[in-house]
Write a structure and sequence with these properties.
16 strands; alpha/beta; 19% strand; seven-stranded mixed sheet; five-stranded mixed sheet; single chain; Metallo-beta-lactamase, Chain A; 298 residues
Length: 298
């Protein structure tokens, strides 16, 4: 049985007085960084408010039906008609690429992802089946979640081999596999900010109640879609070692400070007990890029 470490809500990074202050529904956690919750998932916006056309970046692309929320937030934050310089993906699961094709078409924007995610983004391969045995309503529903690939190959680009991020000076991408083969997290050294994607999250994503109320809790990656638990453990250990000050995750509220770091170290130290489901399908039979088991015919 998994265990979660609850956090004091005061460690949330959201500033209630700034939350949605521009009418865009976002939560600003740094002068150039905000995120918006879209049902079960978050998207992030990098760039100074009012930055204008091609001077900002969208990180991930929400779930189906959220295009107007994303474009509305972008217009309010960066200016009417302002298009991003790039769309950067932490990974290609359905709740992170829900309106990717439509956004990329509307904005004529390049899409960047890790090469090991490319088969899920060029229409050639599907993700392995989810694991509903891990428990929780969200997990039981997981066989209904889309896992077929999208095809954005015309605009798809590889993340730079030197670790830099297009249009995000001072940031670098980190390969954090486990949840899926090509998962990446985004890191800024200057203020120790991490955009962790689903490498770790701050809500119990298996529980529909927890997803609704968003009580701050430190968790490993969503269990029903994680296909390599050894790699997931190594990714959390690496991110904990960075000693982040601020963490924006794919699911749950942004967290900051000493308590967040302590919870992340606890997750890394006790990952097998806290994060890995007992008897989960992928615990003993991981799906990996190296042997092709992570890629199913589309």
């Amino acid at each position: 049985m998994s265990h979660q470490l609850s956090l004091d809500p005061r460690s949330c990074a959201d500033d209630p007085e700034r939350d949605g202050a521009r009418g865009d529904g976002t939560r600003e956690v740094a002068p150039d960084l905000a995120y918006r919750r879209l049902g079960i998932v978050n998207v992030a916006f990098f760039g100074q408010p009012g930055a204008g056309d091609r001077n900002w970046v969208l990180i991930d692309a929400g779930v189906f039906g959220t295009m107007r929320l994303i474009t509305g937030a972008a217009a309010e934050r960066f200016g009417e008609g302002a298009r991003p310089a790039a769309i950067i993906l932490t990974h290609g699961h359905f709740d992170h690429v829900g309106v990717l094709e439509d956004l990329a078409e509307l904005w004529d924007a390049p899409i960047y992802a890790h090469d090991l995610e490319r088969p899920y983004l060029d229409g050639s391969a599907s993700y392995p089946p989810p694991d509903p045995s891990v428990g929780g309503l969200m997990a039981r529903l997981s066989p209904l979640y889309p896992r077929a690939p999208v095809d954005v190959s015309r605009r798809l680009r590889s993340l730079p081999a030197d670790g830099s991020l297009p249009a995000m000076p001072g940031w670098r991408w980190l390969h954090t596999p486990g949840h899926c083969p090509g998962h990446v997290s985004l890191w800024r050294d200057a203020d120790r900010t991490i955009l962790a994607g689903d490498a770790f999250i701050t809500t119990d994503q298996e529980s529909a109640y927890a997803v609704t109320v968003q009580k701050p809790e430190m968790h490993g990656p969503p269990q029903y879609f994680t296909v390599d638990w050894q790699a997931a453990r190594a990714s959390v250990e690496m991110l904990a070692g960075l000693e982040p000050e601020l963490a924006v995750t794919g699911h749950g509220p942004a967290m900051q400070g000493v308590e967040m770091r302590a919870a992340l170290h606890d997750l890394a130290l006790h990952f097998d007990r806290i994060a890995i489901p007992q008897g989960g399908h992928y615990v003993d039979k991981p799906a990996r890029a190296e042997d092709g088991s992570a890629y199913r015919p589309a």
